[in-house]
UniProtKB/TrEMBL annotation:
GO terms for cellular component: plasma membrane. It is a multi-pass membrane protein. It is found in: Cell membrane. Signal peptide: none annotated. Keywords: Cell membrane, Disulfide bond, G-protein coupled receptor, Membrane, Olfaction, Receptor, Sensory transduction, Transducer, Transmembrane, Transmembrane helix. InterPro entries: GPCR_Rhodpsn, GPCR_Rhodpsn_7TM, Olfact_rcpt. Gene3D superfamilies: Rhodopsin 7-helix transmembrane proteins (1.20.1070.10). One of its GO terms (molecular function) is olfactory receptor activity. Putative odorant or sperm cell receptor. Odorant receptor. This is G-protein coupled receptors family 1 profile domain-containing protein.
């Protein structure tokens, strides 16, 4: 005798719907996401190297910025490689355990991003509003403690939400209307009650996001008031250039997060998937360009790094050429000619052009 109850089960795998169900779109999307991912990883790595190789960038703001870019690399790497594989696969599946792991690490690095953006904003506030106390307030010990606290909170927050998802049971459907495993699309598949998940998301999740966002808004208001009091136009421009890049990144990040997560679960749609692309892949790709274009110190640090890399490549090229042809020419008495010829590097050639 049927009881009329749904067939509750713990699924072994999920099917991902993806961004498009049209076969002709898959290769185009693969190329697009591959380019965005490579640009994101290389751009973020360049910024990290520029920060750690330039003594002038050894301060709290750029310390947090380097961690932010590292988190961005991890953030996109958690989801993009699997997305690329699915674009070229007929069956877009992910196992239950892999899905939970993806949710966990996606939330970890996403939360790290929000904490780091808040820390950078507070550091900017201290540097502009209390410049004589910035060294004592944001010292190395304080930065290390903040980073440890951010990491602990991010892991605990993510663990809470993954444990809440793992207790759910599902009906026959295992199709996730998304291109990777995220909390909201998973909750839509559950047959058991998701009220606890919803309450936690709208209390703990909203409280943590709004607390950070509130700190950011208050800090920027105080910064704006302080900048407007600066008498010289040059001083105002320098202060605005220091924080304008952060403000752009904060707007992109929090704007898309608000659109995706803080709305009724039933309204989750294709537009939310597009918004997710913005705050995951696109924001991570644009961040290095935003900081390079709008931050003079960062631009100079990157130029120094590129100059050092180019100089090192020239030396390697010269050494390799001497190693290959030096012994041969020296055997016929032409060692000096070889040395002179290969010391004329590609850089020297460019300088000789009119």
């Amino acid at each position: 005798m049927s009881t009329g109850m749904p067939n509750l089960t713990r699924l072994s795998e999920f099917n991902l719907l993806g961004l498009s169900s049209q076969p002709e779109d898959q290769k185009t999307l693969f190329v697009l996401f591959l380019i965005m991912y490579l640009v994101s990883v290389m751009g973020n790595m360049l910024i990290i190297l520029a920060i750690h190789s330039d003594p002038q960038l050894q301060n709290p703001m750029y310390f947090f910025l380097s961690i932010l870019f590292f988190a961005d690399i991890c953030y996109t790497t958690v989801i993009v490689p699997n997305i690329l594989v699915n674009f070229l696969s007929e069956t877009k599946t992910i196992s239950y355990s892999d899905c939970l792991a993806q949710i966990y690490f996606f939330l970890v690095f996403g939360n790290m991003d929000s904490y780091l953006l808040a820390a950078m904003t507070i550091d900017c506030y201290v540097a502009i509003c209390n410049p004589f106390h910035s060294i004592t307030v944001m010292n190395h010990r304080c930065c290390a403690l903040l980073l440890a606290a951010f990491t602990a909170f991010s892991y605990l927050h993510s663990l809470l939400h993954v444990l809440l998802v793992s207790r759910l049971t599902f009906c026959a459907s295992n199709v996730i209307h998304h291109f990777f495993c995220d909390v909201n699309p998973i909750l839509k598949l559950a047959c058991s009650s998701t009220s606890v998940n919803g309450v936690i998301a709208m209390t703990e999740g909203l409280a943590s996001v709004m607390a950070l966002f509130g700190c950011i808004v208050i800090s920027y208001l105080r910064i704006l008031i302080a900048v407007l009091k600066i008498p010289s136009a040059a001083g105002k421009r320098k202060a605005f250039s220091t924080c304008s890049s952060q403000l752009t990144v904060v707007t992109l990040f929090y704007g898309s997060i608000r659109y995706v997560y803080f709305q009724p679960l039933s309204s989750y749609s294709v537009k939310d998937r597009i918004a997710t692309v913005i705050y995951t892949v696109l924001t991570s790709m644009l961040n290095p360009f935003i900081y390079i274009l709008r931050n003079k110190d960062m631009k100079q640090g990157l130029e120094k790094l590129i100059s050092r890399i180019k100089s090192h490549m020239d030396r390697l090229s010269t050494a390799k050429a001497n190693k290959i042809c030096g012994p041969l020419l020296q055997s016929v008495g032409c060692g000096d000619v070889c040395t002179h010829a290969h010391s004329y590097t590609h850089t020297d050639y460019e300088k000789s052009l009119p």
